[in-house]
C-alpha cells in the first residue's frame, strides 16, 4: 500500500523568508505523480505544484519549487520569499492510477503560518 | 475555477438518520471522487466513479454508498449516520493528471 508521511505538523516563519516542507512516501510503483496542495482557511483545495516521477528535473512554479529525490522517496516543497497569503495547510499527495481513475493518497498535512 | 458545486455546504443531523450529499459538475469529466477530511489524517478516499453507474470503493468506504446516474452528478449517502462520520466531505473531478476539488461540505452528526 502507498503511504505518505509529513513529519512537520506545524511550521512558522517570517514574511520574506524561505521555508521547506518535508514529505516522504512509500510505493513499489516506478511511474507516478506527486502533488502539493494548499488549503487556506477558506477550505478550498488548491494545487500548488505537480511532479512526474519519470522526470528528473524538479518542478517549479514561481516561488514554489520541489526537491524530488526518487531513490530516497522524498518530495519536499520550498517556498521562497514567503508571503502572508501563503499561510495555509499544505498537503503532500501521491497518485495511484486504477482503471484510469486518479486515486490520491494524502499526507497528514503541515500547518504553515507566515508572520508579518 | 472548475465547475464543481456541493450541496448542502453545512449540515447537522442526528445519529441514525440517512444523509445524502450531492456533487455536481459542469465540466463533463468522466472521473469523480468523494473524500473525507479529518484532523491528523489529511484527505482519505471514500468512493470514486469512472463513469455513469460505474463506481468503486476507496480506503474508507464502510458506512457509505454512492450513486451516479448522470455524468454531472455523484451522490454520497450515509444510510444511518454515526458520530464517527462527522467530517468535512470533498468532491473532486479529474480528466488528465489533475484533480479539481469542490468547496466541501461540513457534516456534523450529533
Which helices and strands occur, and which strands form pairs?
The complex is a heterodimer of chains A (116) and B (110).
Chain A lengths: L2 E3 L4 E5 L4 E3 L2 E3 L6 E7 L6 E7 L7 E2 L2 E6 L4 E6 L8 E11 L2 E6 L3 E6 L1
Parallel strand pairs in A: 2-12
Antiparallel strand pairs in A: 1-4, 3-9, 5-6, 5-10, 7-8, 8-9, 10-11, 10-12
Chain B lengths: L3 E4 L2 E4 L5 E7 L5 E8 L3 E10 L2 E4 L6 E7 L2 E6 L8 E8 L4 E3 L3 E5 L1
Parallel strand pairs in B: 2-11
Antiparallel strand pairs in B: 1-3, 3-8, 4-5, 4-9, 5-6, 7-8, 9-10, 9-11
Uncertain ranges of chain A: none
Oligomer: heterodimer
Structural shape of chain B: globular
| Total number of strands of chain A | 12
Poorly predicted runs of 5 or more residues of chain B: none
Q: What is the H/E order of chain B?
A: EEEEEEEEEEE
* Number of helices in the DSSP assignment of chain B: 0
Alpha carbon gyration radius of chain A: 14 Å
Mean pLDDT of chain A equals 93
Helix coverage percent of residues of chain B?
under 10%
* Content-based structural category of chain B: mainly beta
Amino acid at each position: 500500500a502507498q503511504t505518505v508521511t509529513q513529519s512537520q505538523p506545524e511550521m512558522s516563519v517570517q514574511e520574506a523568508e524561505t521555508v521547506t516542507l518535508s514529505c516522504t512516501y512509500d510505493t513499489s510503483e516506478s511511474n507516478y505523480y506527486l502533488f502539493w496542495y494548499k488549503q487556506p482557511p477558506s477550505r478550498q483545495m488548491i494545487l500548488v505544484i505537480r511532479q512526474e516521477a519519470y522526470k528528473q528535473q524538479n518542478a517549479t512554479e514561481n516561488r514554489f519549487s520541489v526537491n524530488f529525490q526518487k531513490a530516497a522517496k522524498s518530495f519536499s516543497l520550498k517556498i521562497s520569499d514567503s508571503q502572508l497569503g501563503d499561510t495555509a495547510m499544505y498537503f503532500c499527495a501521491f497518485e495511484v492510477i486504477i482503471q484510469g481513475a486518479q486515486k490520491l493518497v494524502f499526507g497528514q498535512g503541515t500547518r504553515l503560518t507566515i508572520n508579518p | 475555477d472548475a465547475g464543481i458545486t456541493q450541496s448542502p455546504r453545512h449540515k447537522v443531523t442526528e445519529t441514525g438518520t440517512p444523509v445524502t450529499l450531492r456533487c455536481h459538475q459542469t465540466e463533463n469529466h468522466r472521473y469523480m471522487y468523494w473524500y473525507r477530511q479529518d484532523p491528523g489524517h489529511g484527505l482519505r478516499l471514500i468512493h470514486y466513479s469512472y463513469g455513469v453507474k460505474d463506481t468503486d470503493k476507496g480506503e474508507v468506504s464502510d458506512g457509505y454508498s454512492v450513486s451516479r446516474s448522470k455524468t454531472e452528478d455523484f451522490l454520497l449517502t450515509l444510510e444511518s449516520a454515526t458520530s464517527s462520520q462527522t467530517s468535512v466531505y470533498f468532491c473532486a473531478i479529474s480528466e488528465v493528471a489533475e484533480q479539481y476539488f469542490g468547496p466541501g461540505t461540513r457534516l456534523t452528526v450529533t
